[in-house]
Amino acid sequence: MSEFFGVSGIDISKKVILITFLIFGVLTAAFTLTHNMQLSSFLELEQTDTLKNVERVQNAISTQQGYLNYINQDWACWDDTYRFIEDRNQNYTKVNLRNQTLAGIQVNVMLFVDKSGSVVYVKSIDNTSKEVPVPEDLLRLVEDGTLLTKSENETISGFVLLEENPMFISCHSILTTEYQGPMRGTLIFGKYFDNTLLTSLEDATCYSLSMYRTDEELRADSQSRFKNFSDFPDKPVIEPYSKEKIAGYFKLEDISGNPALIIRADFPRKLYSNSKKTLENMYLFLLLTALMTGVGVKFAFDRLFISRLIGIDNFVTKVRSEKDLSKRLSLKDNDELFRLSREINGMLNEIELAEQELKAQEREKKVLLDSLNELAIFVDPELKIIWANKAALEFMKIDLQKAVGLCLKNAPDISSPLSDYLRLEQIFVAGNKKSGEFTAKDGKVWFVQAIPVTEEEDGKIIGVLKMCRDITESKAAETLLQEKQVAEAANRTKSEFLANISHELRTPLNSIIGFSDLLYEQVYGELNERQLKSVGNISKSGKHLLNLINGILDLSKVEAGKMELSYKQFELASKLTTIKNLLSPIADRKNIQIEIDLDSSLSNIYADEARFVQIMYNLVDNAIKFSYDNGLVKIGARKKGDMVEITVTDTGIGIKPEDQSKLFKPFSQVDSFLSKQFQGTGLGLSLVKQIVQLHGGYIWFRSEPEKGSTFAFAIPIKGGKGKEGTTESDSKVQD
Question: Whole-model pTM?
Fold first, then answer.
């Protein structure tokens, strides 16, 4: 050690000082490097966090443009608008183009242009709903054809830089409500991107926003970051401009794809400043701690070790020079130096005492190992047992005398977990400790460990100590705890989902349906034919959406185990007839016949009447939906032991074999084309399956493409709660 540091001629005290300073220097360098690395990480973290905040601002602006495009498409593809371009009916403008209407849909400018490019009608309001002239530069863009669509499928969306303010622009071809042509012109909607909108975006995002126009000179606060707008990159630019704030810049393109606006969002640098301050305090604290520790170690080392070691050195030198073996050392404190002096004073007398102490230690080790529940066995290089504790002997069902000298591989009931699994021969060669978990044939899980034991002199391995602990119960408890945590988390998520859906969707939908029904019944006054049709469509769509939400909630209740069945006795034939009458108007549209084939021995059944109707409605409605025109839907009912089996058969499109695995899964439909051609969400069959299983029944199906499908379920005639049903294909059902 002295030669390594190049200080072989220096005493121990000075060497300690040098080593202390060296350690302090290394720690200082390590702390400085760590400080710089952490500071760099905080800068990267700040950049990432700022980019996420910039994306929030971008999404808020995109939402404004998306809303304008949606409203523009809704008005442009409207039969009334389509007729207005042709007949210029002033009643259209009086009813639909009021200032309050534009303010209500958050539009500042409306321009109706026919297919020849002539302006049919214009309307412009400011943010106070006051009518104002249409900007001249916007009209020029209409005259030169920049804002006019050329085909039925063309749309124009983006920004235009007007003299007064930038403006969101959305242009759509004027078509019928069915999105059919021929195109009669272009409908142009505009919304000012002014300070009022910028303020609302600030309120929505909680960030300070600034806007730069590309047709104006750069401001002083941005010139240092990019020379001109053409140099601005496609990705957002993040730049800290003070110790307290960091700015994010991103561009917005006009309708031609050129830069129109640069948006700057300012964010506080709390994450970086707080992290930097904490890191600096920690850096100073660690340096101070290291310095104080070094000084303390040096002082303690001199007082407790160096001075006493010098005394021992002087004593030994004196004894050697005087050859007086009667002298004895006298030192304080019961530590290593005290024991050294004691060994020097009584070297010969302590040999016997050391031997007695060694025997006592061996007895203590034996008592300690015998008290362990773990199996402990010590084997030699030939894998013969030298010693085993009480637990291992009881496990092998032999005593220690019979166990000693026995090869571990031949030991009863213990050779596999202690020998084969860890490969003891390799441990004697490599000298490495091994451990792991092992599952025995009887299902018990063991933690096994092999520790090589070496001689103190040459390090040769003289044996291996094997430990084996039964951890079956702890493993089972760990698995149960994990499953409980997963189940509790899933249950909380599902509860939150149900609460949010119920409050956020059902309440406003019921209001929409109620008010639309009042309008349809003309409670508030008479409506014309078109208005009645529109109000009826609102009510119909709202009820469809409410049924969908109810389906989702029912499915969630079943999965959460919160749906309870209300059993009652009812007449099966009457209930099937009710289903037929309820769905006959839908079937009549496709000229489909509905037939009922009821077993004469069936009369009344005992089940949840409302849920039974829900099952039958879903199955028969699906059969009608996927049947060809002039087809046949047949409802059958028969007894099957103590069960009633209901079948619904159609002559429709059928289901491909590769798609049949998708049935009975929530939100799953068998084909992407069918999901567009036939309305539905894929909840019906999943809910049917769950309700059937709640009744203690099962459901199955068979289907052949282009020849039709049969869906059937069976439930107990006299009721059967608590039985878990199954879903079976036709190949698993015995008729």
Answer: 0.39
